[in-house]
Amino acid sequence: QVQLVESGGGSVQAGGSLRLSCLVSKFTNSHYSMAWFRQAPGKEREGVAGINGAGTTSYLGSVLGRFIISENNATNTLDLQMNSLKPEDTAIYSCAADSRPWVALRADEYTFWGQGTRVTVSS
Questions:
Q1: What are the C-alpha distances in Å from 8 to residues 33, 69, 118?
Q2: Calpha distance 122→112 (Å, rounded)
Q3: Contact 43/18 with Cβ under 8 angstroms?
Q4: CA-derived radius of gyration, the chain
């Protein structure tokens, strides 16, 4: 069973930055993928950024160039650096993981989920 615990959410003004972290219980091999999802009020959950054990990444078009997903093997964390934040980035952000090697930004591709952390961007 993989356990995920997010931290780092908060409130920031437009143009600011936040860094989210997800503490992940370790996979026993490199065949895994992890991702960040978000869900804004009244909207469907959407995949923001994903990464696999080989370091391949994928991003939602609207965050490309602003958000960076990375994995820290020393601390077993999945991080999301969010820069140039916009009010439309306001959402509950959740990390997810699954034991397969390809990167995906579809929620139904992931088995394990964290509880979520709130990000609020004011204009």
A1: 21, 14, 9
A2: 30
A3: no
A4: 13
How long is the chain?
123
pLDDT tens digits for range 11-33: 999 999 999 999 998 666 677 89
Tens-digit pLDDT profile for residues 84-93: 999 999 999 9
Nearest to 71 by CA among 93, 45, 97, 46: 97
Do 71 and 54 meet the contact criterion of CB atoms below 8 Å apart?
A: no
Residues 55 and 32: their CA atoms lie apart, in Å, by 10
Summary mean pLDDT of the chain: 94
Residue ranges for the chain with pLDDT beneath 70: 26-29
Do the Cβ atoms of 23 and 76 come closer than 8 Å?
Answer: yes
DSSP state of 12: E
Strand duo 91-98 + 18-24: pairing: unpaired
CA distances from 97 to 68, 73, 102, 112 (A): 17, 15, 11, 5
